[in-house]
Amino acid sequence: MTTTTDRQERGGRALSPLRIPAFRRFLLAHLVSATGSAMAPVALAFAVIGHGGGAQSLGIVLAANTVPTLVFLLLGGVLADRMSRSRILFLGNLGAGLAQGAVGFLVATGAATTLAISVCACFSGVSAAFVTPAAQGIASRLVPKEQLQQANALVRVPGNAVKIMGPVVGGFVVAFAGPAWALGWDAGTFVVAALLLLGLRLVGSVPTGRGAVGDLRAGWAGFRSRSWLWSYTVAGTAVVAAWLAGYQLLGPLVAADSYAGAGSWGLVQGAFAAGLLMGTFLCLAWKPRRLMLVCVTASGGIMLPLAALGLELPLGWVLVAAVVAGAGLDVAIVSWSTIMQQQLRDAELGRLGAFNAVGERIAVPIAYLLVALASKHWTSQHILLVCAGTILAATLANACVRDVYRINRA
Questions:
Q1: Residue 114: count of CB within 10 angstroms of its CB
Q2: Predicted structure pTM score
Q3: What is the pLDDT of residue 4?
Q4: For the domain that residue 271 is a member of, what is the CATH number?
Q5: What's the number of domains the chain is made of?
Q6: pLDDT tens digits for range 50-72
């Protein structure tokens, strides 16, 4: 059964998404999971650094997490359009919780190695491959179409609010108690979120009779036929790879070498999260007509903290850059989610969202490995500047695509 009732659909314009019980449950699951996920990047980075690893070890771990996601994302997209999305979310979050708990146990017992952490990261990546496409269409199942941007923004409020203090707290927890505690907390929140999401009871679409391979081919045809979708995905291939390789891989290392270590990196992540929250509230009040153009330009702001770290600016300037980047990124995320849900049918949203996710992530493991190799010859600061330049170039190229100006608010 679906959770959006006929009465809610008829009165959709008068209701707020917060008045829909299933949507509130979805928000609560995000809030619970975010309390742990906000600490996890700091904890994972310094867990690797703590056993003597550097850029190469951290790059291997992050690549081990990303590659399985890429391998299984398309299958996850097919299943999201055919099976219960709430059950997929339950199993995916449960698997991620078990993987993160295993990392915490290894770190706590002193048995953590790059190989062991990479194996756990691999299982976590598989879970993400099924969660990502299933989550893409949740809001469109829970609220009327005219409330989609508001719902997409509200979904991000609790997570972004927690992320403001989460990385700061996580940085100090890691500094004073060790990364195992933060990783263990993250594992527990995944399990609780899984139980909440299971209660949504979202069924799959009507089977097409084509089989999984046929559905995948139909999804690819739909993806290719929409130039706004594939052009944004191609640009995202460069943007996402440069961002994650710079921010997630090199950011903690530069913080450890040029700033005050885990504490300062926690402040940077907290500032970035504050920017995300600012972007969320902006989306609640601002409904631009040229939604696609806003999405493309706003996402380019994530180059700013990479440039600030690469230039070794004072920490205050890095924090300002992180706030601006976070605000732009959240505007882009909410805008893109709304575009996808308004422009695509629910029955194909999982598959087309999976193609988009694969395209944006396919270069990430390559970028991690290239950065790890380049770190032997270049400084982290020089590599960060290259990443910032890549994001700027890709954003400008995407802004030249004609369909960016044609896809407006429905």
A1: 18
A2: 0.75
A3: 44
A4: 1.20.1250.20
A5: 1
A6: 666 666 677 778 778 778 888 88
